[in-house]
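User: My collaborator sent over this chain with a note saying "see what the structure looks like." That's all I know about it. Can you take a look?
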Amino acid sequence: MEIKVLIVDDEEAVTRAIAGALEDEGYRTLTAKDGREALRLYRQQGADVVLLDVWMPDIDGIDLLRRIKEVDEGCPVIMISGHATVSAAVKAMKMGAFDFLEKPLSIEALLDTLQRALRQREVQKAEGPFPSLRGEERPSPLAEGEAGRGIVPQRTLKRSTVLYGTGLHSGQKTGMILLPQPPGTGILFCDLTDEVVVPGDLDHVVSTDFATSVGLRGVTIRTIEHLMAVLHAYGITDLLVKVDGEIPVMDGSALEFCKMVEEVGLREEGPGLKEVVVDKRYEVRDG
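Assistant: Without extra context I'll predict from the sequence alone. Here is the result:
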């Protein structure tokens, strides 16, 4: 089945370049230079995914996102911008955008995001509305039949979500976008304005002095400890976290992160993983 992508950008060179790249990959594309044309095309022909520029001369991208969601709430909308800010990204995600990409676009990153968006839509169609965990029995830490064998299921969030708070280091408002990932991805961090993806593992820890930070190729993501603790507690193994340099500290504890997981819900996926067990106490000391 041919996948139809609607590309909305007031820069003709941008729409032409994206359309050419996607058509080479087998996608069918529609292009619009402004919000009114985009809305007309979407209502007349529909689309499986929409690529939408934030800043346009008539109807801005955020307003157009709202109008598209009024027509089809389940349509994945990927926002693109050459002047990304945390507040714009968080606002778009709260209104239902699937992801937020910074110009100039990496074709590899764009294709990956399109595939994730299409996978999530298929999951939505199969599962229906996303239930939260409130009032329900939480999933067991071990999948049925696997208890005692050291195998744990892979999990991700049921849908994309955002949180907005204050940075511990900067003291400024900041936010993060959490995106479900397929099995085997692991926990990944990415700065909003950079394409470098930093794995959330011990090999990439660069500091534990004031707060725990991970880094790669000059990109550092700070204050990850509370979020990582919550992901571990809920057994979340696959997630992409987009952030403006540091994870917001919220109320200074992990409580708001827990509430977020409870509201969004979890999805188990793929084969289980062997659980790493710390079998005794270990200490690291200076000298």
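A starting point for your reply to your collaborator: The first helix runs from residue 12 to 24.
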